[in-house]
Amino acid sequence: MRIDVVSHVDEIKTEELFNKTVIIIDALRTSSTIITAIANGVQMIVPVETIGQAKNLQSQKQEYLLAGDRFFKKISNFHLGNSPLDFVKQQLNGKSIILTTTNGTRAINKALKGEEVLIGSFLNGDKCIEQALHFKKDLVLLCVGERNEFALEDGLAAGFLIDRLMKHYTITFELNDFAKAMYAVYKFHKNGLFETIKTTETARKLIQLGLGEDIHFCSQINLYPICPCVATHEDITIII
């Protein structure tokens, strides 16, 4: 089985996704938000790229809640932001959410050329890998990144997922060079993972905005035994 890690969303070419399982990794925060939302009873998430698309869809489906951010800040007049803690603190059982984020939801929609698309992070590593291996296809771990650049926390999460593979499965794996690098970086930092994540550019920006609590939450290992999957319902991309 081949495992490719891609450094950020703009590095991926759609033809590289054909007949592969894609894992979207946006550790701070979109992947962690989606996983937390589904784990806490949200029925369905609709990922869209723009604020306009989100508002237009919600005008047709007024029972859906709007959630999202731009550069970590909650969008004005939206019900929820893009913090996983938003989905822990509110009673959202059975609700459907329309989500738009700066980069994460764009990555999800770009990954749709993959055979299967899963959502992964530190929060669900073991279950995510278990689900990915079920499909018996080569893997692409797509690090979302920040502002068209690589984000270290996503690379660490990719290395963590590779570590789960290496520890729990006896399959022979072939890694691309970036996957080898991220695996090595994760192994070097795993005993001080939270302290390392706190030093990243993304974490620094979250702290400046008073959102430092998100960093600790998103750094938890295997908090949720679920793996959200991307599907299509009534010609709409959904996450369940």
TrEMBL record:
Protein name in the entry: Probable 2-phosphosulfolactate phosphatase
Entry EC no(s): 3.1.3.71
EC main group: hydrolase
InterPro entries: ComB-like, ComB-like_sf
Organism name: Tepidibacillus decaturensis
Single GO molecular function: sulfopyruvate decarboxylase activity
Pfam families assigned: 2-ph_phosp (PF04029)
Gene3D superfamilies given in the database record: ComB-like
Named cofactor requirement(s): Mg(2+)
Cross-referenced PANTHER family: 2-PHOSPHOSULFOLACTATE PHOSPHATASE-RELATED
Keywords, in A-Z order: Hydrolase, Magnesium
SUPFAM superfamilies per the UniProt record, alphabetical: ComB-like
Family note: Belongs to the ComB family.
Catalytic activity: (2R)-O-phospho-3-sulfolactate + H2O = (2R)-3-sulfolactate + phosphate
